[in-house]
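Recall that a protein's primary structure is simply its ordered list of amino acids. Everything else, from secondary elements to tertiary packing, is in principle encoded there. The following example makes that idea concrete.
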Amino acid sequence: MLLVATALPARADETVARDAFKRAQELANASPPRWAEACPLFEASYRADPQIGVLLYLADCHEHVGRIASAYAEFTDAADLARQRGDARESIARQRAATLAPRLSKIRVVAPPEPPPGLVVKRDGVDITLLVGGELAIDPGDHELEASAPGYISWSKKVTAAGTTPVAIEIPKLDRIAAPPAKPAEGVLDVKSQPDAEILVDGVRKGRGAFSGPVTAGGHTLRVVAPHMRAYQTEITVGDGEHRTIDVPLEPALAATVAAPAGPPGPTVELAASTASGVKLRADNPLMIVLRVEAGLRLGRRINLGLYGEYAQLQANGSCGYSMPGPDPATPFDIGAQNQFTKCQYLMPGFQLYVHVRPRERIDPYVGISPGFRFGFADYTTYFGGLMQASRSELFPAIVSGVRAGVSYRPRPGGWQVGGFVDGSITIFGKEHSDSDDAHGDGGATFLSLLLGVRGSYSL
């Protein structure tokens, strides 16, 4: 413990300095000493009333907590202050500083090869720019070095000081901050025409009837078209910051100048999917859920010729519409065979032919036929007199012709179409009874199924 004769602050009216110093002494004299808590109080006392004795106590405290560089600097400052004031404690302070000098950890900060203008170097937030290039005493432990300059990306590095061998820290060349990209020159273009006119700028549709918005400065191609009107096209120039307004009155197309209508377009591929629900109008009239996928060729604009595949699930809590007894007896005296159906479904590949009524319009009605070959699959268990007999899986083939009427909505020319439809599926000849049921003979059944659904398609 450092012994200093006149340790108390010289000015009794400095209450803060006195109270902080007194509390710091109590912590330093505790058993064991609580140096880490005492140091901030010695420092607060010195700031309130800078006395040599308090500075010596602060330096001694920092030595105890391992902050050798801070203690060395404070003993040196105390010696210089004692010399100015003619205080006898100068020799004590210099002796303590000399004792700590061999234990100092040091770093040498090396400036970058080409220091940028305005370079500032900081250690733990303290400006040490003037000390760059020389050895700098530093407390043991982790420290943060920073280098910055206006217009350059800042650099920072964590430095760990330990031992007495000086460590060189080189500041790398700082990279310039990239300048923000220049804002492209642009102006504002206003175009007005009749309500149904399509306005295109450089081939890109901008609106119908009117357009107002930013465009890049320079030359552009303006085109305005409307049904039964002569197309308008011109080259325009919009300056940087210019607000240009153009009114385009269209003229009716003359019959003599109307070009012959183009021939029908070549075939295009149309892919579609639909889902529907309905009822099989036979026996117990089971409900159905149907999914269909289609791939066809659009011949011209009106004809769609293609193939389809359809899958359906039938309600299986009755007889699935087959000519077979269901799970419930027909009368209380019915003790014949009963069938508990567990799964009824079918797959049907086929051909389709749709004819579109208004293929050029957004709303396009269509009608069509879709003959196919249906393969029904049923899983069921037979009971006789309440006793389970056997579980079976059977195939029920049929020839079917579907008739469909629907309407499609096209949000924009080409591409996607969506819509609804009704479908009447006529089974021309179909097996509707089990192979083990001889009572119904070998004849096929004819019946109707009705569907209501939605369809979406895409033209490639």
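The first strand starts at residue 105 and ends at 110. The chain has a mean pLDDT of 85.
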